[in-house]
Structures are given as structure tokens and as C-alpha cells.
Design a protein that fits this description.
By secondary structure, this protein is an alpha+beta fold. Helix content is about 50%, strand content about 30%. It has helices spanning about 1-25, 30-55, 65-125, 130-195, 200-225, 260-270, 275-285; strands at about 240-250, 290, 305, 310-320, 325-345, 355-380, 385-400, 405, 410-415, 420-435, 440-450, 460-470. An 8-stranded antiparallel β-barrel has the order 1-4-5-6-7-10-11-12.
Length: about 475
């Protein structure tokens, strides 16, 4: 009798399996609506593309049917999008529920493992002799099981967090789809009102359309700010920003006038009017010396620059989707250096002819540049990765400190040789901006800077900018 009952139960389960599986696979009303909307969209797409192909191949085509088919396609898309968004939201809700169920099971397994571990520790502490070693091995095993249970719980917790974020995004996209459908309906209502010619109805329809557009614009901004719209920047969503930059300048070679004849004349005066200094240089060079060449001209070699790092601050305002107007402050410090000839005259014995040789002395001076500027930048596209280009003007202040010379390894200070100058500059900008999040961005930027003065100090720079959107 027991065997017969078992066979009856197995047969009943086999009979019910296809029925229950068909129930689980049964489509919901929402699934049917989405399928119907997708079919309507596909039919409208095919009809529109077929008619458009006719128009493209016939220069004399003027059939209004193409416009009507385009409206039908827009309507089909407008009706499909909210339904698809609702379906995606339902799927996200189910994913979250499954993740929460899995987490609850993982939490229970962790609690059980924790209890088992605590019991094993307690049993080991009570054990004595050989039994204590066996209990200790059991503690190690229970600890390993507890660690695995904790890892599984943490993974399940992360899955819940991810599912919650996915549901928030799905809800935001559903809300956007509904608001876009409301704008479409308002546009259709305005079109119908214009067809009647009733001015009151037209005015009311236009007001309603303006309201729905503003609602949609606000919803897009909110979705973008919350990171629910990825890879796209909502129009007008950004307004003000600040940034910090750092980089390296490949300088334009400064003119030879950086170290003028006045510095060289001051160098000669300081040496020849100071017997102690003159003697030090004399001993170092091994003979008499002359600053300059045989003609006595004080001429330096090409001026070099070092320490070319620079940093800056920026702030700006987005004027629409792509245009950015900004102001900037940049600062950099350099060291100017140049060589100059020194003629050394060495006397031999009483009857020997004096010999001459030429060595190089060096001039160095610290210099600091500060500049403020205004730029207009055009961002290309609205994606997460945005190329950009722009141009601007800046005003630069140069402050050169007192120079120092070295002759034969002997340092010669040159006080009161500091120089101050200022000039205007033109700046060309190009770069690539990566929008890390709705608020933060990183940009790799290159600049070409050219001055307007007779002795400009510009160059080509490359650097990184890190900025934050401050909102409206």
C-alpha cells in the first residue's frame, strides 16, 4: 500500500509539472502591452522607411503621407517608451526582492556559523588533555566556515545595494519616460488646437506645453544630478564650476635681453672694485682676466629656463549646452641662466709670452610669472568624454629677482638687478574632459601661449585640471 501511494504522488507531480511551468511562463498584461507597442512601433518604422525611400529616389516627391507616417512613428515611440520603462522597473523590483531573499539566507547562515563557532570555542575551553587538541581543530574548522559565511553575506549585501541603485535608476527613467510622453501629448494637443483656429484653446495648449517642458527639464536635471542618466549631460544642468590645475610648460626661448649690458657692467664693477673678490677669482683662474671678449663687449649666450612646473585656479560658467566662459589664474617659477665669456691671461716666465684662454662664466636669476586670463571654450558633444577647444587672452606679470654670477667657481652677487615687466598674451586651448560623476570632472589640457611684447616669455604647456560643478 505504501509503494502504491508513493507511485501515485510521483505521477501527480509529473502531471502537475507542465501545468505549473506554463503558469510561471504566462505573460502579464504589461508584457502583452509592451509586445503590442513594439509591434506598432516596428510597423510604423517599416512604413515610414518605405515611404522615405520613395521620397529619396524621387526629386518631385511631395506627398504629405511621409509627414503623417513620421508622426505615427513618433507616436508609437512615445507610447512604447513608458511601457518599456515600467517593465524594466518591474524587473528591477524582482531583482531586488531576489537579492534581499538571498541576503536573508546568507545572514541566517552567518548567524548559524557564528553560533557554531562560539559553541566550539566554549567546548575547547572546557576540554582537557588529548580531547583539547581535537576541540581546537574543531574551532579552526568552525572559524573557516564562519569566514566563508561572512564573505557570502558581504557579497549578498553588495548585491542588494546594487539592486537598490538599479531600481532607483529604473524608477527615474520611468518617470522621465512618462514626462516625455506628457510633452508629446501636449504637443499633439497644441497641434489640434491650431487646427481649430480657436485662439483661447491655442493659448491654453501652448501654456500647458510650456509647463510640461519645464517639468521634463527639471526631471532630466534631477536624473543627471543623481547619476541616473549616464554618459549624457542634460542641457543647462551645469552652470558654475571651479577647478585646480597643474602641469608643465615647454617655454618659448626668452630673448637675450633678459640679461642686458647693465647687468654685465654691474658685474665688472663689483669684481674690479672689490680687491678680495678679484684676488679669489685671480687665484681660481690662474691669471689675470677680462670679463667679455677681446673687444671688451659684454655679450651673454642664449638664455635657458628651468623649473617649468606651473599651477593654477579656474572658475567659469556654462552658457548653454556647449559654451563655457571662464577666468583663470596661473603661476609658475623659473630660473633664467646664461653664460658669458671670460678672457684669462696667464703670464709665464720672464722671457715667456703671455698666453690667453677663454672660459665661461654663468649668470642666474630667479623669476616668477603670474597671469590672469579669460577664455571661451567650446565643448564638443554631450557624452561622458568630451573633447574641447578654445581661445583667450591673459595679462602676465614677470618679477625677476637679483641675479648672481659665477666666475671661476667664485660667486659674485649682483644686488639691485631685479627686473619687473608685464605683457599681454594670446592663449589657444585644446583638451579632453572626462565627466567622472555628475559633479566632478578631470581634463587633460594643452595650451599654446604667445606674448605681445618684444621679449615675450610664453610656451607650450600640458597639464591636468580637476574641477567640480557647483550647480546653478
Amino acid at each position: 500500500m505504501k509503494k502504491v501511494l508513493q507511485l501515485f504522488i510521483v505521477a501527480a507531480l509529473l502531471f502537475a509539472a507542465p501545468f505549473t511551468s506554463s503558469l510561471s511562463a504566462q505573460k502579464t498584461d504589461l508584457d502583452k502591452k509592451v509586445e503590442a507597442a513594439e509591434k506598432a512601433r516596428d510597423d510604423a518604422q517599416k512604413a515610414y522607411e518605405a515611404e522615405k525611400a520613395k521620397a529619396d529616389n524621387d526629386p518631385k516627391y511631395h506627398d504629405p503621407k511621409l509627414g503623417e507616417l513620421k508622426k505615427a512613428l513618433d507616436k508609437a515611440n512615445a507610447e512604447l517608451k513608458p511601457l518599456q520603462a515600467e517593465k524594466d522597473k518591474k524587473a528591477a523590483e524582482k531583482t531586488l526582492k531576489d537579492a534581499e531573499d538571498a541576503f536573508n539566507k546568507a545572514q541566517k547562515a552567518y548567524n548559524d556559523a557564528q553560533k557554531a563557532y562560539n559553541d566550539a570555542v566554549a567546548a575547547r575551553d572546557k576540554a582537557k588533555g588529548k580531547d583539547k587538541k581535537a576541540k581546537n581543530d574543531d574551532v579552526d574548522r568552525k572559524k573557516a566556515i564562519l569566514d566563508l559565511a561572512e564573505e557570502a553575506r558581504n557579497k549578498a549585501k553588495k548585491a542588494v545595494d546594487d539592486a537598490k541603485k538599479a531600481l532607483e535608476k529604473a524608477e527615474a527613467l520611468e518617470d522621465l519616460a512618462k514626462k516625455e510622453k506628457a510633452v508629446f501629448d501636449a504637443e499633439k494637443a497644441l497641434e489640434d488646437a491650431k487646427a481649430t483656429g480657436d485662439e483661447d484653446n491655442i493659448k491654453k495648449a501652448q501654456e500647458e506645453l510650456d509647463i510640461q517642458k519645464k517639468i521634463l527639464e527639471n526631471a532630466r536635471k534631477k536624473a543627471k544630478d543623481n547619476g541616473h542618466i549616464q554618459g549624457m549631460i542634460a542641457p543647462g544642468s551645469k552652470s558654475y564650476y571651479v577647478s585646480l590645475s597643474g602641469g608643465y610648460l615647454f617655454p618659448q626661448t626668452p630673448g637675450d635681453g633678459i640679461f642686458g649690458n647693465d647687468i654685465m657692467a654691474r658685474l665688472g664693477e663689483n669684481i674690479y672694485s672689490n680687491p678680495t673678490l678679484f684676488e679669489q677669482i685671480y687665484q681660481s683662474l690662474g691669471g689675470e682676466f677680462l670679463i667679455g671678449n677681446t673687444s671688451g663687449a659684454f655679450q651673454t649666450g642664449p638664455v635657458a629656463m628651468s623649473n617649468n612646473a606651473q599651477w593654477g585656479l579656474g572658475a567659469g560658467r556654462y552658457m548653454g549646452r556647449h559654451c563655457l566662459v571662464s577666468v583663470s589664474y596661473q603661476q609658475r617659477s623659473h630660473t633664467f641662466s646664461a653664460t658669458f665669456p671670460v678672457m684669462v691671461i696667464a703670464h709665464g716666465g720672464p722671457n715667456a709670452q703671455p698666453s690667453t684662454r677663454q672660459v665661461a662664466g654663468t649668470l642666474t636669476a630667479p623669476v616668477q610669472f603670474r597671469s590672469v586670463g579669460i577664455q571661451n571654450t567650446w565643448l564638443i558633444g554631450r557624452n561622458q568624454l568630451q573633447p574641447y577647444a578654445g581661445a583667450g587672452l591673459s595679462w602676465q606679470w614677470m618679477q625677476q629677482g637679483d641675479a648672481t654670477a659665477a666666475v671661476g667657481g667664485v660667486e659674485v652677487p649682483l644686488p639691485n638687478t631685479a627686473v619687473r615687466d608685464q605683457n599681454g598674451q594670446a592663449v589657444l586651448i585644446t583638451g579632453l574632459q572626462f565627466n567622472v560623476s555628475p559633479q566632478w570632472f578631470i581634463a587633460l589640457e594643452g595650451q599654446l601661449v604667445r606674448g605681445f611684447s618684444d621679449n615675450p616669455v610664453g610656451g607650450t604647456g600640458i597639464g591636468l585640471r580637476v574641477g567640480v560643478d557647483l550647480g546653478r
